[in-house]
Amino acid sequence: MSRTEAAPAKVNLYLHVTGRRADGYHLLDSLAVFGPIGDSLEVRPADTLSLIVDGPFGDALAAEHDNLVLRAARALATAAGIEARAALRLTKRLPVASGIGGGSADAAAALRALDGLWATQFGTEGLAAISARLGADIPVCLAARPAQMQGVGEVLLAAPLLPPCGLLLVNPGIALATPAVFKARSGDFTPPAVLPGAWADAAAMAADLRGLRNDLEPPAIALCPPVAEVLAAIAAQPRCLLARMSGSGATCFGLFPDAAAAEAAAASLPARWWCAAGGLAGTAR
Question: Are the CB atoms for 281 and 250 separated by under 8 Å?
Answer without folding.
Answer: no
